[in-house]
Design goal:
elongated, alpha/beta, 8 strands, four-stranded antiparallel sheet, 8 helices, 213 residues, 2 domains, Alpha-Beta Plaits
């Protein structure tokens, strides 16, 4: 769908083997053919849960999709959520490579892809301790774990050129809910402990933004 810049895959019913793999490989080819496209999957009428196909999807399909410049994957879920456990499994796996959103309609999926939450954080660090603080953040796997969350789009620290004791963090999340879930993770709590040890003041700015172009 060129105007929306998405590859849209609709499942009419549960599928397996070639009935599952052919449409997904076709979607992969479209993602390669049309740069800067995101992936929307309508799973309201079925999806896939054959063990061999799941293993193929995790080991072959997703790594190949990750080689495209697709950034977002949106799942349109059934109202009754009959396949919630199955979709949670796929959402978690997709989240290793992409920012993932769930929606109840195609229009809502597009809205969630295009609207994001930007959080700018400014840390005032104990003089002379900025590099040590950042090293501890890395050692505690806070950056990697935050980027691996399905709802994360960007998580990056920056050092300003005009100060040795200030550190900036830019976060972009797919939704307020994703950002809230981030605050409940173990790695977020590890960051809070480090802040008590190294940071004297924190300033936070939060914005709702449209898709980055």
């Amino acid at each position: 769908m060129k105007n929306e810049k998405v590859v849209f895959l609709t499942w009419k019913k549960f599928a397996c083997l070639n009935d599952y793999r052919k449409p997904t490989l076709f979607a992969l080819d479209l993602l390669k053919q049309f740069p800067h496209s995101n992936f929307v999957v309508d799973a309201r009428n079925g999806f896939e849960d054959d063990k061999e196909d799941v293993e193929w999807g995790f080991s072959e399909l997703l790594p190949n999709i990750s080689k495209t410049d697709c950034e977002y994957v949106a799942f349109i879920m059934p109202e009754t959520e009959d396949i919630q456990d199955e979709m949670d499994m796929w959402t978690k796996e997709f989240g290793k490579y992409f920012a993932v959103v769930k929606a109840k309609s195609f229009e809502q999926a597009l809205s969630k892809i295009n609207d994001r939450i930007l959080v700018n954080v400014k840390y005032a660090v104990i003089p002379g301790k900025r590099d040590e603080f950042l090293e501890k953040v890395v050692e505690n796997d806070i950056i990697t774990a935050s980027r691996a969350e399905p709802g994360n789009y960007k998580y990056e620290y920056y050092k300003p050129v005009d100060s040795e004791d200030i550190l900036f963090l830019m976060e972009i999340w797919v939704s307020n809910k994703a950002q809230t879930l981030h605050s409940k993770t173990e790695h977020y709590q590890r960051l809070q402990s480090l802040k008590k040890e190294y940071v004297t003041n924190v300033t936070i700015e939060k914005y709702s933004i449209s898709a980055i172009v």
